Amino acid sequence: MGTTFDPWSPEFLADPYPAYAELRARGRVIRYEPTDQWLVPHHADVSVLLRDRRLGRTYQHRFTHEEFGRTAPAPEHEPFHTLNDHGMLDLELPDHTRIRRLVSKAFTPRTVERLRGYVHGLADELVGGLAVAGGGDLLTDVAEPLPVAVIAELLGIPESDRAPLRPWSADICGMYELNPSPETARRAVRASVEFSEYLRTLIAARRAEPADDLISALIAAHDEGDRLTEQEMISTAVLLLNAGHEATVNATVNGWHALFEHPAQLAALRADHTLVPTAVEELLRYDTPLQLFERWVLDDIELAGTTIPRGAELALLFGSANHDGTVFDDPARLDLSRGDNPHISFSAGIHYCIGAPLARLELAASMAALLRRTPTLSLAAEPLRKPGFVMRGLEELKVTVA
């Protein structure tokens, strides 16, 4: 297999990690013309740059598109950008700090802990259905429905309204891939409009009649008289759904695919369920669900003797950083007992994933249920990988329970 970095190549998408090793050997920052980006493949650099205030997820808090040397988004894409640009993931100081502080008042560790029983009960129910059926698609039978239902439960979205959530999320997240197509953009805009309209109606209902859910808590959250705007609440809810299940779905199927490919490690896990916490962390590292995180250069920076000018875009390669041999001993080896595991699958700095504790809870719950209820679980067919690069996952994962 070749080692060329090519995010559209099926060979690369099947296994990008040898190409990352070649990038790390080439240097600390590599210009990549096809996407007009600078690739950053080393763990130390990625970790530092995630915390560097000279970089930003947006530049619009300081510059116009013209001042920054960039073209404004197409007017017909406005609904997507309105939704996206008011979420924490794509904001910088001071807006990011204000919104994250207000959201944190509603989305607390206690909130996550209160969901523990629901998460474990639902995981057990979904896995039980898979066991009774003698197998199925681990993606659609367990990996997808668990986090979608949990986020919907958290937000207070009624069960009868939940069917469109996953399609809306998938269509919106298509815009985070490299160079999305016009059709991808059209679908993202439509999903942004429909999801926003639904949430606007739900927020109005919760204003009139608050409930014990996150939407009501976001409405109530305030700090020295400051409150979230309606658009900020909508964008926060969408971000929590998208980020709160997209990575968990992909981490689940990527992880089990890796386990099936490493039968000795799977056998060790089946023999000792106390390995689940470290197994979750190792699988997040080993086949990273979010491969790339982009940052704009707001002020000229120098990296390894190379000056990267204002207006450039960095591609921080999480998948490569998580396989950096200067940080991880024998990084190509899957080791479910790996103790020292500073992976960056949940990012770092001010954009560290606010939902990481919930994601870990969901991943551990589904893994524990599968180990307990389906001890003979095995791969039924070689899976197809999704065509996207940034969000790494599978189209399906067919399994059988003997």
List keywords for this structure.
402 residues; alpha+beta; Cytochrome p450; five-stranded mixed β-sheet; three-stranded antiparallel β-sheet; 17 helices; 12 strands; 10% strand; globular
Structure description:
The mean pLDDT is about 95. This protein has a single domain, classed as Orthogonal Bundle (Cytochrome p450). The protein has helices at about 10-15, 15-25, 45-50, 80-85, 95-105, 110-115, 115-135, 140-145, 145-155, 165-175, 180-210, 215-220, 230-260, 265-270, 275-285, 320, 355-375, and strands at about 30, 35-40, 55, 135, 220-225, 225, 290-295, 300-305, 305-310, 315, 375-380, 400. It has about 400 residues and is α+β, with helices and mostly antiparallel strands. The protein has a 5-stranded mixed sheet, sandwiched between helices. It has a 3-stranded antiparallel sheet with strand order 4-12-11. It is built from 17 helices and 12 strands. Helix 4 packs across helix 11.
